[in-house]
Automatic annotation (TrEMBL), chain A:
GO cellular component: plasma membrane
InterPro entries assigned: ABC_transp_permease (IPR001851), LivM-like (IPR043428)
CDD domains the UniProt entry points to: TM_PBP1_LivM_like
The species this protein was found in: Pseudooceanicola antarcticus
Lineage, highest ranks first: Bacteria, Pseudomonadati, Pseudomonadota, Alphaproteobacteria, Rhodobacterales
Major location category of this protein: membrane
The protein, known as: Amino acid/amide ABC transporter membrane protein 2, HAAT family
Automatic annotation (TrEMBL), chain B:
Organism: Pseudooceanicola antarcticus
Transmembrane segments: none
Location of the ABC transporter domain: 4-249
Gene Ontology molecular function: any one: ATP binding
SUPFAM superfamilies referenced in this protein's UniProt entry, alphabetically: P-loop containing nucleoside triphosphate hydrolases
Name of the featured protein: ABC transporter ATP-binding protein
Gene Ontology, cellular component aspect: plasma membrane
CDD domains found in the cross-reference section: ABC_Mj1267_LivG_branched
InterPro entries: AAA+_ATPase, ABC_AA/LPS_Transport, ABC_transporter-like_ATP-bd, P-loop_NTPase
Keyword list, A-Z: ATP-binding, Nucleotide-binding, Transport
Length: 400, 253
């Protein structure tokens, strides 16, 4: 199907089902229950899941296949966002030209940075990309203020020229981003019993693009080009002495991966038309590295899982505050309650990075292959258990 | 005129004259061995042939074209393949994938953005890789990761990968270094078989005299960066100059 073998087609199918039914899957608790704060099925977060999914899938094409660890991918994300917002300001509020421009500009930017950075390998490459990303951040933050609007960030205003479309709506507001009239921000709410499920246009468009991005990533993984990229990771010396020029291969991977980041950046701006320099900061670059490694670098589904995992915990853990903790532990004696809350409050709210750090340490130490390896181990464990059960079942035939 | 012509090649590393004035002519379809004691400049010479090093003086011509100033992959595409002292293979990939990569390199050249087709649908490449594995007794190991093979099999795979490119000149850098006697003999048989089946020129750098005298048709003895003698094996064996340089014996002994 679609030029994929059965296993890959199944994987794509599973991701498609997850994306389509995410509003249900991520909303397991009724809206007014105490557990409702663990629900993740609201548009803003779901959009982030798929957008960072795209970002991580693209990053994995570079890091997972060639082993080149870029520490500057957020620069492409930021460039994508700025390009998209400019498209909204100048051309039209339709997201298609905005997203196309983000990909093109991010691709060109990646070509430039990649051309220079890929002269070095290993840690030197990582440092070069980090340096470029920090330079881009500083440029966006101050030097290029006319283009980026500096620390305020680039926003839509009521004076934007917008060649195809109106400067302001009839009611005097700023028009909203849309896909041929379909507003990105509009959400249908389905109330079923105590549950309320939200279906957001922007989420479904980003979700569709995640599926396309994921599909292309599978095709690249399975293509001769993908095999060459894995060969680059394995042994560059042998590549060179097999008549293969490694430079264009790595550069192509870098540019493709930069375009994925540009797409993610463009989508972010499409959901919420503003772009700030902080999207290019090194912490943002580090985050996509964490997502990919946490999920499983070099695997197809790993980056998507890692992105979902980190974004879920970021949002859920950072929402828990002292009051919530007290309400959980109020049954305990006062002294004990205060002690427990005192310990836990450092791991939630703004301290959730501490939790992320611990989780990352645990995963890297015990599951070097990331969540995907964890899944495989569980699969094997249950597989063995089933085998064992079958064995005991046959053995336990009574000998009476 | 040989297929490989090395003329007046010199290479200096700082104060060390690694190669003095090397002249070498390798006849097409012959097996030519380069021997010499440690530090004689054998590996430096080899690196000058494949583009890893650029000699300070002299010229290296392959099939009438200069190789100087070309990168290793360009030289490889001209028809020179190199086998390393420790097998250089794609350790993380399967044997089948290892075999397919040189087949792609042969067909598509140094770079092709072939991202649409799947590896599975490249029947022509798969067939060539399969045929080569069959030929080299690697077929049963096709799904194995190259890293988990024995040293002898890795060597066999590396040679198979080089041959899959149908090179005109195969350079072997101490192919039996660190091998047990049985593996060494297997490698000798393998190289003999290869020579029998194909039109190929082989240049071999080797320490092990047993290997050299079982394979070589001509031998060049290198000492301190300059060729001492070049002759057929039977003449080399008893040559007083060789004994002196190689074994440290005096001519009188």
């Amino acid at each position: 199907m679609l030029g994929l073998n059965k296993k890959d087609a199944t994987l794509l199918g599973v991701v498609a089902v997850l994306v389509i039914f995410a509003p249900f899957i991520l909303n397991p608790f009724p809206a007014d229950s105490a557990m409702a704060q663990f629900n993740a099925g609201y548009p803003d977060l779901m959009q982030r899941f798929v957008i960072f999914g795209i970002f991580a899938v693209g990053f994995n094409l570079l890091f997972g296949l060639t082993g080149y660890l870029s520490f500057g991918h957020a620069a492409f994300l930021g460039v994508g966002s700025y390009s998209a917002v400019w498209m909204f300001k100048l051309l039209s509020m339709n997201v298609i030209p905005a997203i196309l421009l983000s990909m093109v500009i991010a691709g060109l930017f990646a070509l430039l940075i990649g051309f220079i950075s890929l002269r070095r390998t290993g840690i030197y490459f990582s440092i070069l990309t980090l340096a470029f990303a920090e330079m881009s951040f500083r440029l966006a933050y101050s030097v290029l203020t006319p283009i980026t609007n500096g620390e305020t960030g680039l926003q839509l205003t009521l004076e934007d020229p917008r060649i195809l479309g109106q400067t302001a709506t009839e009611s005097g507001g700023i028009p909203v981003t849309n896909l041929f009239g379909l507003e990105m921000r509009s959400t249908e709410v389905l109330n079923l019993g105590g549950w309320s499920f939200q279906f957001n246009n922007g989420y479904y468009m980003a979700g569709a693009l995640l599926l396309v991005a994921f599909y292309i990533s599978i095709r690249i993984f399975r293509s001769p080009f993908g095999m060459m990229l894995r060969a680059v990771k394995s042994n560059q010396q042998r590549m060179n002495y097999t008549g293969l020029n490694t430079k264009p291969y790595t550069l192509a991977a870098f540019v493709i991966s930069g375009m994925y980041a540009g797409l993610a950046g463009g989508l972010m701006a499409s959901m919420d038309p503003l772009a700030g320099a902080e999207r290019m900061q090194w912490t943002a670059s580090g985050e996509v590295v964490l997502m990919t490694i946490l999920g499983g670098a070099g695997t197809l589904i790993g980056p998507v899982l890692g992105a979902g995992f980190i974004k879920y915990f970021e949002n859920i853990f950072s929402k828990i505050n002292e009051a919530v903790l007290h309400s959980w532990f109020h049954a305990l004696p006062d002294g004990l309650e205060n002690a427990i809350v005192w310990v836990f409050e450092h791991f939630v709210g703004s301290g959730w990075h501490l939790t992320l750090g611990l989780l990352f340490m645990l995963v890297v130490t015990f599951l070097p292959g990331g969540l995907v390896e964890g899944g495989q181990r569980l699969g094997r464990l249950f597989g063995r258990k089933k085998d064992a059960e079958e064995k005991t079942a046959t053995q336990s035939t009574p000998a009476e | 005129m040989g297929i490989l012509e090395v003329k007046n090649v010199g290479k200096r590393f700082g104060g060390l004259q690694a190669l003095g004035d090397v002249n070498l002519s390798v006849a097409e379809n012959s097996v030519h061995a380069i021997i010499g004691p440690n530090g004689a400049g054998k590996s430096t010479l080899l690196n000058c042939l494949v583009g890893k090093l650029i000699p300070d003086t002299g010229s290296v011509m392959f099939d009438g074209q200069s190789v100087l100033g070309r990168t290793p992959y360009e030289i490889n595409q001209m028809g020179i393949s190199r086998v390393f002292q420790t097998p250089e293979i794609f350790a993380d990939l399967t044997v089948m994938e290892n075999m397919m990569i040189p087949c792609f390199a042969k067909r598509d050249g140094a770079f092709k953005l072939n991202g649409i087709k799947s590896v599975e649908s490249e029947a022509e490449i798969r067939d060539r890789a399969e045929a080569m594995m069959e030929d080299m007794n690697l077929a049963e190991k096709r799904h194995m990761h190259a890293a988990s093979m024995s040293r002898g099999d890795k060597r066999r795979l590396e040679i198979a990968m080089c041959l899959a490119q149908e090179p005109r000149l195969l350079l072997l850098d101490e192919p039996t270094a660190g091998m047990a006697r049985a593996d060494t003999n297997n490698t000798i048989d393998l190289l003999k078989e290869i020579k029998q089946k194909r039109d190929i020129t082989i240049v071999i750098i080797e320490h092990d005299m047993h290997v050299v005298f079982s394979l070589a048709e001509r031998i060049t003895v290198l000492a301190q960066g300059t060729p001492l003698v070049e002759d057929v094996p039977s003449k080399i064996k008893g040559h007083p100059k060789v004994r002196e340089a190689y074994l440290g014996e005096t001519a009188a002994a």
